[in-house]
Specification:
It is an enzyme of class 1 (oxidoreductase). By secondary structure, the protein is α/β, with parallel strands linked by helices. The protein has 13 helices and 18 strands. The model has no long low-confidence stretch (mean pLDDT 95). Bound molecules: flavin-adenine dinucleotide. Flavin-adenine dinucleotide binds next to helix 1, strand 2, strand 6 and helix 9.
């Protein structure tokens, strides 16, 4: 084993959570090493960004670069119910984009490097502990094992949930939305709506957990995703191609219409078991951000926005913990803030799946419309005192009570 270096913060993973956390830690004067296993640019799913994510990107000074990269503006989300009935439109209040994640994540990584985040391509394999506290990591690079010491080790490893797998963070527990499999691919030649709505996200659903996304990720490429329950996937489909075909036939005729002249680019892929939560996700010398501790349901495109927000918020907690030489107060505050926002998002998503038609009505309700649009824009962490979260919470508690009784 070679000699080791030491940093204030070592981050596992260079997705949106890791890059934003690194940038914010550097702004606070901390030394940061980010270790990423994959060579960038690399494929990633998660291509439609909320208005909140758009604001973070503009705050980073990346708006011009986003436009130059050809990422389409996202005017809003069109939600189309079963048999193309119950359609409603969710406008985006703050300008934002649809992205090809390989290029977007690479852009964030470059920004992190500009801010002085050091970068190491390598696979983090284990943690180093001293008297119960996490004090570093062991990673493999260039066929050798290396040690690095940290005051705080940040798990931003996404769905790999590294610290959970190592038994440092809690076990992965399935969320309500976990019984789904997503199959997806990129296409050229997809028929789009007319401008200015040609670059909307389109969500089509037929019934609970049977849905599809269409996201224009460049001037000539669209992402198609088909999400269906696991048991249906295993019964009807042998592979992601079958699932996409099943979705085109059964979710909405609108998908077939839009893709009739489209050509697929590359292979299709499937993903299962993407919805979970991990508790605890903070501890002595470590914390988790983004998908490394929780992912809900992709239906409202919260993932990148929450990952970036958590990266930024965690940097505050890290700075306080290092300066004050005490982790519990700042890390528990980060944990409670995260759980609060994620719970509001989970309620919104469950309400949509339980009462999709009422959800559409609430979008028209003048008393709630503004709040719902802002919650869908990613404001779930900044909505203290709002009415809508309480209404959705009460409705879900009532639903759960009835399920238990019935
Ligand atoms: P990631 O982006 O996954 O980054 C983690 C990084 O860690 C990766 O680069 C990985 O290579 C690296 N890594 C992992 N393990 C190690 C290790 N041991 N050592 C070193 N490096 C490691 N979100 C949206 O905002 N919009 C969408 O439209 C959307 N659609 C989605 C559709 C589906 C089907 C799914 C499942 C998710 C979707 N998401 C969407 C969610 C989004 O993809 C994630 O929430 C987001 O990428 C989380 O960012 P992150 O930085 O936490 O993790």
């Amino acid at each position: 084993m070679s000699a080791f270096k030491s940093y204030d913060v070592v981050i596992i993973g260079s997705g949106p959570a890791g890059s934003l956390c690194g940038i914010e830690c550097r702004k606070k004067g901390l030394s940061v090493l980010c270790i990423e296993k994959d060579e960038f640019p690399r494929f990633h799913i998660g291509e439609s960004l909320t208005g909140n994510a758009g604001q973070i990107i503009r705050d980073l000074g990346l708006a011009e670069e986003m436009d130059a990269a050809g990422f389409p503006d996202k005017p809003g989300v069109n939600v189309i119910g079963s048999l193309s009935k119950n359609e409603f439109f969710i406008p985006i209040l703050a300008p934002t984009w649809q992205v090809r994640r390989s290029d977007f994540d690479n852009m964030l990584k470059r920004k992190a490097l500009e801010h002085g985040v050091e970068y190491q391509q390598g696979l983090v394999k284990d943690v180093i502990k001293h008297e119960g506290k996490v004090v570093g990591a062991i990673y493999k690079a260039d066929d050798m094992e290396h040690q690095v010491r940290s005051k705080v080790l940040v798990d931003a490893s996404g769905q790999n949930t590294f610290l959970s797998r190592k038994g440092v963070a809690g076990k992965r527990e399935i969320e309500f939305f976990s019984q789904q499999i997503a199959s997806f691919a990129h296409y050229k030649g997809v028929e789009r709506d007319l401008p200015p709505f040609s670059t909307n996200t389109t969500i089509l659903y037929s019934k609970q957990y049977h849905w599809s996304w269409i996201i224009p990720i460049s001037p000539d490429t669209d992402s198609l995703g088909i999400v269906i329950p696991k048991d249906l996937y295993y019964k009807e489909c042998k592979n992601p191609d079958d699932a996409i075909e099943w979705g085109m036939e059964n979710i909405s005729p609108e998908i077939r219409r839009r893709f009739q002249n489209a050509e697929r680019l590359g292979d299709s892929q499937s993903m299962a078991d993407f919805s979970y939560r991990i508790e605890p996700f903070v501890g002595d010398g470590w914390l988790c951000i983004g998908d490394a501790h929780r992912f809900l349901d992709p239906i409202f495109s919260y993932g990148v926005s929450f990952a970036m927000k958590e990266g930024i918020r965690a940097a505050d907690a890290i700075k306080q913990a290092i300066d004050g030489n005490e982790w519990k107060t700042p890390f528990y505050a980060y944990r409670d803030w995260s759980n609060g926002g994620q719970q509001i998002a989970a309620d919104l998503i469950r309400y949509f799946w339980i009462y999709p038609i009422f959800f559409g009505y609430q979008m028209q309700n003048p008393d709630l419309r503004d709040e719902v649009i802002r919650l869908l824009g990613g404001c779930c962490f900044d909505c203290e005192g709002w009415k809508a979260p309480t209404i959705f919470r009460n409705a879900i508690e009532e639903y759960d009570r009835k399920q238990m009784v019935g």
